[in-house]
Amino acid sequence: MSLTDRAIERIRELIRTGVLPPGSKLPPEPDLAAQLGLSRNLAREAVKALAVARVLEVRRGDGTYVTSLQPSLLLEGLGGAVELLQGDAAALRDLMEVRRLLEPVATALAATRISDDQLAEVESHLDAMRQARDDIERLTAHDAAFHRAVISAAGNETLLTILEGISGRTLRARIWRGLVDDQAAARTLAEHEAIFRALSARDTVLGQATALLHVSNTERSLRERLRASASRSFGMPGEK
Prior knowledge:
It is a single chain. The chain starts with a helix and ends in a 6-residue tail after the last helix. It is elongated, with a radius of gyration of 22 Å. Helix content is 73%, strand content 3%. The relative contact order is 0.11. Helix 2 (29-36) packs across helix 3, helix 5 packs parallel to helix 9 and helix 8 (136-152) runs antiparallel to helix 9 (157-166). The chain is built from twelve helices and two strands; from the N terminus they run αααββααααααααα. The protein has helices at residues 3-16, 29-36, 40-52, 71-74, 77-84, 89-113, 116-131, 136-152, 157-166, 169-181, 185-200, 204-234; strands at residues 56-59, 63-66. It has a two-stranded antiparallel sheet with strand order 1-2. The protein has 240 residues and is mainly α.
């Protein structure tokens, strides 16, 4: 472990033990360095790193504070990381696998907790998707909003943040372009309708099954397009 990593770990330990709870202000840099038994440079580097990770917030002219430490804040960098993986076929397959593992269970949970207002929001995005069948941008936006509304109804902020992070906008748009090109958009819309009906019935088993079918079909479609793209890149048989 580098000296900077040790400095970061010491500040994290102060936060974990409640010495620096969420929203609290850190001591001035000289005092913090003395408290940690580090040089001011190391303390400064540790604070910078934790600010990038959204653990700390540096307020100019005021000082440095511990953030709310909410999952949505700490995990928001996940989406940016996913966007950087768009050219890595293996990583995209892994991300879809994680989505397949988590989203059906989250949908089943949502079926037990969804309110009438939340159900109406899901339906509004479903209606918008029907009206945007040939508009990739709108389809992508309302697809993301549809799934966000479903997972939000599960009432688990950490789960919502993770699933939103691994289903980045660029990846969604890529999938929808493939579905439109393959004339499979209607089938995928029908899968969304099935999820909505399961939620309307408050049926956990059906909710999990319809979400699993949808994510599995989406995963298969992405895998097929990744294979086709690789075939074209290497000039393999079957190239179009």
